[in-house]
Fold this sequence. Notes:
Membrane topology (chain A): Multi-pass membrane protein
Oligomer: heterotrimer
Pfam families (chain A): BPD_transp_1
Largest sheet of chain C: 9 strands, mixed
Strand order of the largest sheet of chain B: 1-2
Largest sheet of chain B: 2 strands, antiparallel
Order of helices and strands of chain C: HHEHEHEHHEEEHHEHHHHEHEEHHHEHHH
Subcellular location (chain A): Cell membrane
Family (chain A): Belongs to the binding-protein-dependent transport system permease family.
Order of helices and strands of chain B: HHEEHHHHHHHHHHHH
Radius of gyration of chain B: 25 Å
Domain ABC transmembrane type-1 (chain A): 86-277
Amino acid sequence: xxTSTLTRPGARAAVPSKGGDRRPxxxxxxxxxxxxxxxxxxxxxxxxxxxxxxxxITQDPAGFPTQWRIENYANVLGSPVFWREVGNSTIAxxxxxxxxxxxxxxxxxxxxxxxxxxxxxxxSVFTAGLMFPMxxxxxxxxxxxxxxxxxxxxxxxxxxxxxxxxSMTIIILVPFLRxxxxxxxxxxxxxxxxxxxxxxxMVIPLSMPGVVTVGxxxxxxSWNSYMLPLFILNSxxxxxxxxxxxxxxxxxxxxxxxVLAFTSLSMIPALVFFSLFERRIVGGLTGxxxx
Amino acid sequence: xxxxxxxxVQTQVAKAESAQGGGDAVASPSPARGxxxxxxxxxxxIAFLAGPALLVFLTFVILPVIIAxxxxxxxxxxxxxxxxxxxxxxxxxxxxxxxxxxxxxxxxIIVVLSLVIQGPIALGLALLLNRxxxxxxxxxxxxxxxxxxxxxxxxxxxxxxxxxxxxxxGLLDKLGLAGLQQDWLSNPSLAIWTLMAIITWKYIxxxxxxxxxxxxxxxxxxxxxxxxxxxxxxxxxxxxxLPLMGPTLRIWAFLSIIGSLQLFDLVYIVWGQYVAETAGTxxxxxxxxxxxRNAGSYGYGNAVAVVIFLISLAVALLYQRFVLxxxxxxxxxxxxxx
Amino acid sequence: xxxxxxxxxxxALVTGALLLTACSSDPGTxxxxxxxxxxxxxxxxxxxxxxxxxxxxxADAFHEQYPNVTVEVxxxxxxxxxxxxQTALNSGDAPDIFMARGxxxxxxxxxxxxxxxxxxKLSDATTSAxxxxxSAFTIDGKVYGVPTAVLPEGFFYSQDLFDAAGITSTPTTLxxxxxxxxxxxxxxxxxxxxxxxxxxxAAHWYYNFALRECSQDTMNxxxxxxxxxxxxxxxxxxxLQTFAATEPFNNGFLTxxxxxxxxxxxxxxxxxxxxxxxxxxxxPGVIASLTPDEQALxxxxxxxxxxxxxxxGTPGAMMSGADGYSCYVNAPAECVDFLDFIATKxxxxxxxxxxxxxxxxxxxxxxxxxxxxxxxxxxxKSAPYVMLWLDTMYGQNVGNALxxxxxxMLAGSGTPQDIVDAVNSAALKG
Lengths: 291, 338, 430
């Protein structure tokens, strides 16, 4: 993947440069600024709070640090527990993403480009997955994971997550794969490609934007997943970050500043990951929202 | 993925954007010789491609729900096997329970307000971000940021900000607006709006990204033609962009409705499981956890889960039937197998 | 009714997986392996420094004495404990040693056959040292757990704030308490901190009013028939409603948590932002962890719940909790050795020091030095009778309904009658 792919030529203004818009630009920047303020304030509060002392937060909840203390952050960054949790979260998120993408693309390809009896029924079964969040099925899920001997392992978190992510993945990918032109397919068959060959050589590369989109959504969902790990992971060595945040918050409940520092650091990786791929998400969804 | 391919897809997308909102672009295998052999080959391919996903999905999503439905017919405290079969009693109690009715009401309010509040704001933001401007990419990241941060973190942060002696009231005090200080979380006439503010802040990014994708799909030629004909910016948005955005808006509304019906984490973390009820922010999912798991009534909790599922399904089916019918074929209702 | 008839017609995969779960009554993991090495997993609810350290120390000391046994300590957030334990027990994947709260909650586990009967297994030394504290873990004459702490309840208050408000003696009646609340509020602090976000701290107010209004027999009878048919239950609700109408609780008490962070009710007392709270004997330890310097609050003192006129309860009766530990039904025999081990005088004294609370062993109670706890211990020893928390005694189902109803009433969306009704209809949700 070269860097040039990160700049999509498709990002175009909805308004041509001539005509239509003669209003000054300041208004827009003002609105944008206001918006940034509203959205960023709570996040900034969490991050800046990590630089304050507890006494300050208790006495004056809405203030700036009188002096910027970095020890809260330094402590968290220097603790092996934090890095172990980052590692666990990363493993779980990457594994979930890969599995969701591979299984999702394969299934979506069938639903988008094959005609067979029961295709719509199959699609309905997958979309039905949107109707129940994990909360609903958590007790039976726990029993299931246990009888498969996956307790306390990241696999016990990853596999159910893949199942629950498949619905959204397939709903986004199917319309996307449908838009791949029939002419291409016919041309490929002329060249003696089988359908599977066409799948490997054309579909996978062409559906990249969609794949990136569902990949990011799966990654973020896994990174932030709380309910399932709470039940599956009991030993601290297998904790993921959200559990770590919780455990940390109760262990240092007195120390709001420390908790804020830990919290800020735990959201950074997902934010960075997202900003790297942000442009591609829009491209990926363009196919999906066509329906 | 190269830029060239991208534009190919783009034009195809534009092509597909026909008056009926996209047709069925399924390639049918050419009716060739050796019917039976081909059919078997096809079946093998289908099984090979869709099998793994279906297996994982059935085992970890559908099966737990079936188990939940099974336990819903029992009075079961969660220890040992369920033996006390009570038939439909759990369901009768749920539907008569005032606390559940209240939760259902709150869910309905959240569904409607989410659409009414988020829709227009997100559309405006998407139009704004779709223009050429500096820091565009940075802005997008910022708007999407709350969606990326986990509910645990968001909940912890907002709890600190909104507490009676938290940052928001502290800020008002500093600005000399002490008169505006409120009990943001536990005042029943305010709490639902506080919740809506948090929901909007957290999920608006998702709507904006979807709408941006929809806007990208609108063929530029149409807009240019309209501009040349002397249409103003607002006329173009109203007459051309909005109608063409129809499918996108309807898909987003669908996802938003389903999400609102199943809202859990944010309420649970910010309000806790008990105060949500009195503050008027309880949802069906928080009711399920507090009257099921926390009361040690697992059978009852599983019955609530089934009710949530049925309500979501009913709403989804109605929505498909009357709103989405023209956009997607066969998502849930199973359209025609042309 | 077996699962197969109900689910006939579902795919083979579904049935197969269900049968897998149907036979989940296989013996649990006993961790025993060929060479006699045994691993015991322990779930406890302390997530802060000294408490966590105590359990780790116990595990290490036990391992020294029994080299073939390793104890794995896992900390579970107190508010998550019951739910996680339940899920773990019903899937046959329980920890070998787990925290038990006694009463009806423990009875639920006993009924399901998930907990080991310790009646003839514990050493005589343990049984005699624990004495009356054993009763919370005794069901139908059989012992299912070993208590580690007794947690009687009353008001923990800040002497400095009381002095500043000109209060010279602690209140003994409800009207005196109301006068003190007025004086404290006039002095500019919150009078009483309540962590109603967690529900149980608010419900404890109702329990104590019920303790004053209802006779011992009435309260015990309710434990077996699980209905509130005596008039005293309604009177207790009315008392609480009348008292709450004077706005004695801290600003925003409905969204205040009990013990998490400086903004919790314990944190408000620790930082002198509220003068008192109604809590069990664990409170000095929690408050100490929340003071700015993380040391015990020097001016912390204690007084019992005030008496009221015309109630059926005996004056001096107390509400109390009991923390203890039980063994999973399929745990290795070494589990009992571990329970005997933590019940020894030295280890109970270490427990009292680590948690700043009252140990269950009467032999170790001499180790209590904290002035507030000493006063509490005297009241406990001279109490005519002690009642277990109602939500523990009446079991999880009734207890949860009761707690929720009390919070509803305090939030202004329920009545005393609603509390009684909630309890009487709780069984329907069984």
